[in-house]
């Protein structure tokens, strides 16, 4: 009966057991996962653009090889995540359609422009650092395919974070102009990085239920605090200033206090009013349309070889 199924599902969640695609699950659990995993997949794919812009302008062969590998990793992450979403009965083509029609979200962070090569370093350090902070706990998410995808994604994100930090260390050991460039990039990316964790817990409609279902393991504010605490010593080691006059160690709490995030800006960017929203989505749409012949050829090939064992 429905009651037995619900009780069995609840017991498995309480026992920290994984839910797998063929298992019974409440409709809300399924739709929440589709929403979060699709948004996550879209973020990885849209996230290729800000850094992809620097592939043809990387300052050395070494930097270009690293950046190429990184941007290709993001494509891979998008693919694992779309595959994880498909285990829930949705279709990747439909999810892509929803993205390019603006009916599904992707992370706010990718609507900011990359103005100099220092931005590539700061994205690695702060944006990928925030992504790791958010995604390591998701390796323990209750839905099996999502949790397993996160394991590999996090390993690759660690490489992304390291390459960014190493790039910044090198620039900070360079000329005064290079150091200025790094500080400028930190000033522009710090606050948007804090917004990646989502609205404050009190204004987050999904956190409570997603925590109860074990989809999320920490709240938005908990992860944001963790990120601030880990970034402060890294900023000191790098020799940059984080652009927040209220940032201070609070011995009583055992955490850093920090200033107020501009949530009006967050809302504006999420609802399409950021600097690059229109460009990001229109480029994604163009890439999708230009790739139509590849999808058609692949489908025709598959149809031709169906049942021949060569498909
Ligand atoms: N950018 C865009 N939208 C956001 C962001 C953000 N930074 N943060 C929250 N939102 C959206 C949520 O999707 C939700 O919208 P919806 O209900 O219309 O779908 C709304 O704001 C309210 O937020 P929450 O109730 O807090 O939503 P949720 O519980 O899903 O938490 C979070 C948001 C923390 C981003 C969660 O979805 C998550 O952990 N996702 C997986 C990680 C991820 O997507 N990372 C992508 C960027 S990292 C990278 O790709 C390198």
UniProtKB/TrEMBL annotation:
It comes from the Bacteria. One of its GO terms (molecular function) is phenylacetyl-CoA 1,2-epoxidase activity. One of its GO terms (biological process) is phenylacetate catabolic process. Transmembrane segments: none annotated. InterPro entries: Aromatic_CoA_ox/epox, Ferritin-like, Ferritin-like_SF, PaaA, PaaA_PaaC. GO terms for cellular component: cytosol. Pfam families: PaaA_PaaC. PANTHER family: 1,2-PHENYLACETYL-COA EPOXIDASE, SUBUNIT A, PHENYLACETIC ACID DEGRADATION PROTEIN PAA. This is Phenylacetic acid degradation protein PaaA/phenylacetate-CoA oxygenase, PaaG subunit.
């Amino acid at each position: 009966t429905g009651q037995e199924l619900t009780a069995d599902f609840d017991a498995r969640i309480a026992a920290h057991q994984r839910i797998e695609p063929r298992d019974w699950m409440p409709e809300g659990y399924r739709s929440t996962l589709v929403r979060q995993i699709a948004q996550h997949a879209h973020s990885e794919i849209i996230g290729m653009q800000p850094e992809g812009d620097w592939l043809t302008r990387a300052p050395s062969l070494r930097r270009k090889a690293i950046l190429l590998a990184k941007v290709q990793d993001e494509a891979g992450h998008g693919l694992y995540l779309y595959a994880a979403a498909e285990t829930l009965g949705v279709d990747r083509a439909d999810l892509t359609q929803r993205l390019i029609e603006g009916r599904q979200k992707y992370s706010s962070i990718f609507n900011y422009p990359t103005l100099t090569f220092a931005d590539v370093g700061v994205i690695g350090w702060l944006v990928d650092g925030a992504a790791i902070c958010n995604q390591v706990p998701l390796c323990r998410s209750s839905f099996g395919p999502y949790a397993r995808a996160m394991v590999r994604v996090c390993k690759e994100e660690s490489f992304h974070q390291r390459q960014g930090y190493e790039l910044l260390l090198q620039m900070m050991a360079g000329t005064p102009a290079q150091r200025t460039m790094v500080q400028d990039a930190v000033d522009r990316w710090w606050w948007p990085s804090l917004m990646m964790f989502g609205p404050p817990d009190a204004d987050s409609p999904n956190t409570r239920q997603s925590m109860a279902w074990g989809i999320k393991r920490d709240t938005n504010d908990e992860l944001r605090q963790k990120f601030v605490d880990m970034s402060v010593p890294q900023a000191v080691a790098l020799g940059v200033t984080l652009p927040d006059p209220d940032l201070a160690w609070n011995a009583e709490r055992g955490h850093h206090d920090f200033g107020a995030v501009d949530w009006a800006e967050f809302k504006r960017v999420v609802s399409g009013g950021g600097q690059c929203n229109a460009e990001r989505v229109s480029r994604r749409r163009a890439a999708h349309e230009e790739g139509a012949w590849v999808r058609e050829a692949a489908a025709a090939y598959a149809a031709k070889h169906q049942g021949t064992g060569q498909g």
